[in-house]
Write a structure and sequence with these properties.
Layout lengths: L1 E6 L5 H6 L5 H29 L12 H34 L14 E5 L6 H10 L12
Antiparallel strand pairs: 1-2
Helix pairs in contact: 2-3
Length: about 140
């Protein structure tokens, strides 16, 4: 059984652990953003100090890699964060477009709701039993299109 969505009146930290791992698309986008951001920062600083404006300041070598590290790190983190946020929005929106979850009208303001994916028909009774043991007051079945 896998929890697809949870609606709660307040944050429940244990639900984050039950939700499963981070989707691989988000992790890959974060890694790609970090590599692109870091490489871009290094390339821009190298081009600026060695080709575009080679200025000798205080006897420092033109390729002063150590001086470039703070900017490189900051841009790597910034672009990685943008990549992860963009991938999160893209994967979340595509998942939302493909399935319609429980509507807000069906759930009261002080209610809890879980959307659980049941991979096989044989697992349905196990899901019902798990919900009943957890104290669920209602159980609705919805087929995916």
């Amino acid at each position: 059984l896998a929890i697809r969505d949870a609606i709660t009146p307040y944050p429940v930290p244990a639900l984050a652990r039950l939700g499963g791992p981070v989707p691989p698309a988000i992790a890959r986008a974060c890694l790609a953003g970090g590599v692109i951001g870091g490489a871009s920062a290094l390339a821009l600083q190298a081009w600026t100090t060695m080709a575009s404006w080679p200025l000798d300041v205080g006897g420092k070598p033109l390729a002063a890699w150590l001086a470039w590290m703070p900017v490189t790190f900051e841009l790597a983190v910034l672009v990685a964060a943008f990549g992860a946020a963009g991938a999160f929005v893209a994967t979340r929106e595509s998942a939302r477009a493909s399935t319609a979850g429980p509507t807000v009208e069906d759930i009261g303001p002080a209610s809890f709701a879980l959307e659980i994916r049941v991979p096989a028909e044989a697992e349905l009774e196990r899901a019902r039993e798990a919900c009943r043991l957890a104290g669920a007051s209602a159980f609705a079945l919805r087929e995916e299109p």
